[in-house]
Amino acid sequence: MGARVVQRMIAALAGLTCLLAVAPAAEADPGPDAVLGGSVAAPGGGGPRTYTNPVSRSFSDTFADPAIVRGEDGWWYAFGTSDPLREGEGTRHYLPVSRSRNLVDWTYVGDAFTERTLPAWADTAAGASLWAPDIRRVDGEYRLYYVVTQTTLTPEPNDNAIGMATAPTPTGPWTDSGAPVVEPRRGAGASGDFKWTFDPSHAVDTDGTEYLVYGSYYGGIFITRLDSTGRKAVGEPTMIAVDNKFEGGYLVRRGGYWYLFASSADCCAGPTTGYSVYAGRSRSITGPYTDREGVSLTTSRAGGTIVIAPNGNRWVGTGHNAVVTDPAGQDWLVYHAIDRADPYLDEPFGINERPMLIDRLDWIGGWPTVRGGAWASEDPQPAPGRTGPVKVAPAPRPGPVDRRRSDEFDGTQLGSGWSWVRAPQGEVTGGALRWPTQDAELNRENNTASVLLREVPEGDWTAETKLRIDLGTDSVRNYQQAGLVAYAGDDLYTKLVHVAIWNTRQTEFGKEMPYEGRIAYGGTIVGPPAEETWLRLVHRVDRRDGEHELRAATSRDGRNWVYGGVWTLPADAGLRVGLISLGGAGATAEFDYFRLHRR
Predict the structure, then answer these.
(1) Where are the annotated segments for Disordered (predicted)?
(2) Cα–Cα distance between 553 and 549 in angstroms, integer?
(3) CA distances in angstroms from 351 to 54, 125, 270, 316, 322, listed in the order given
(4) Of 62, 68, 449, 556, which cross-links 530 as Cys (Cβ 3.0–4.6 Å)?
(5) How far apart are CA 218 and CA 495, in angstroms?
């Protein structure tokens, strides 16, 4: 079995592929017009005044990987990946289609394909499906791009490719072009090892040249030029986002820049799904793309400015986006998410239930963010077509350091107040805690790693450390890591770590919890790491239900912070906070200090 085949299997088991089947600003009081989903009409007509996510509730329970276009008839049309639409239905819809007059009230209008009309080169005997559509209107025709998961182009399994169909209207009839736009791409392994040719997205450059973006974790995201018909990739493709971190690429032109939106982390880990959207920008459509801090999206310590991530409300797994502009000129992010209280379509650990959401996309300082950084909404929001001021979500500000609960590691041993889960590790020397990564884990059933912990005060607090870990770059060092942990038990915790994931180095904010007789784990990504990386866990207590909300932040210089997603832990969880260094022997973590701030 080739190394890349092993990579593909491990990544799939970890939930890294999308298509397998902040202190947020305070939300407004819903008021008397609140409804459970759908919209509230404006007095006297004129379109809805408000809406509530998910907007696909009226016709489906799940509608993943949404793509959207406005038709010549004035309707908006949304296309989703192939899944059953309702719980208990059991029948797969091949690229289901819905439409709306106002972007919030949607009606199902059919499927782009059926079992009988699938592309002739789709290997139906092998269970071929169609995933991740992209819908555009080009030169008077509608073009629909999609993933064909199994093809007849090779005798091997997993030979996924990109197809394209055309139609006179968004509701069809759709006619496949008869051949792939991007053919299966072999990996370096044995039979059946193909790179993930997923998530197509079409774009037209300022000179009229057409391009297609495609790719996923196994292989990376690429951009390729298309021929004049849009039916065939031509020339050499260019990588615009690194493998093992990004998928779901989508391009938007604004203010002289091309913005690449891309999703990262596991799409489909049920209640612990950390899928999120990131952005880089470039003057050229073919890159290179860099984030707000100037970090490239193609390096081992890849950048990516956060557009949306889980914010602590009901929605997790906020990713795989499209962008539309309403008649008032306001941009909207169309994406899917998972209700953490209802994460599966039917049985647990089956199809992840990912309905379609929309939220306002704001541009602040030249960068996109959803709802001014508040991210996904769960309460009524002003409907599309109505303008208003942008409310920027404030970044948390740590309070004074609690010296009794902090440790500068300036002596020859740990300060008072620390305790160990399992055997003590590492040593305090040279003004740092030096802790070799353990050949041990804190992952699902494998709870063998030692954990260094201390008590936390009641209420709000922030934990911070400065970390240096010799992970290098580019080489495979799976999954050596070190960082902060908020711990309520071996199977109930969050951790913020600098980690080696195949050729990449990332700051992963993970959560583990019991769910339906198993242990669920998932993560979301924060800012790019560096030789020295500062890490923060910001703890707040939700005043509504007492839940512990933990938000991650990272910095490459100790001054400029990237605030990422939020994980929640139960109100009755007995939290302690501390440090970990684990995931495989071969690296050494150096913690310069541990500081606990009282808010």
Answers:
(1) 372-416
(2) 13
(3) 18, 21, 9, 15, 22
(4) 556
(5) 25
CA distance linking residue 162 with residue 141, whole number of Å: 19
Q: Looking at residue 56, what is its pLDDT?
A: 98
Q: Which of 65, 111, 193, 549 is catalytic?
A: 65
Sequence-separated (6 or more) residues with CB below 8 Å from residue 163: 119, 121, 122, 130, 145, 146, 147, 148, 176, 177, 180, 181
How many other C-beta atoms are found inside a 10 Å radius of the C-beta of residue 386?
16
Check if 572 is active-site.
no
Tell me which DSSP letter residue 403 carries: G
**Pairing outcome for strands 561-569 and 548-555:** antiparallel
Q: What angle do CA 463, 470, 12 make, to 5 degrees?
A: 80
The candidate with the shortest Cα–Cα distance to 498, out of 489, 507, 509, is 507
Residue 266 appears among annotated catalytic residues? no
Of the residues 83, 111, 193, 247, only one is catalytic, namely 247
pLDDT, mean over the chain: 93
DSSP per residue over 448-469, as a string? ---EEEEE--SS-EEEEEEEEE
Q: Which H or E run contains 9?
A: helix 3-13
Residue 561, strand partner residues: 555
Distance of alpha carbon 109 from alpha carbon 342, whole angstroms: 26
- Dist CA 357 CA 478 (whole Å): 34
Q: For the chain, count helices (H), then strands (E).
A: 1, 39
pTM (2 d.p.): 0.94
Q: Does residue 274 contact residue 310 with C-beta atoms inside 8 Å? A: yes
Amino acid at residue number 43: P
Cα-Cα-Cα-Cα dihedral sign, residues 122, 124, 127, 130:
positive
List for the chain the helix, strand, coil content (%; round to 5): 5, 45, 50
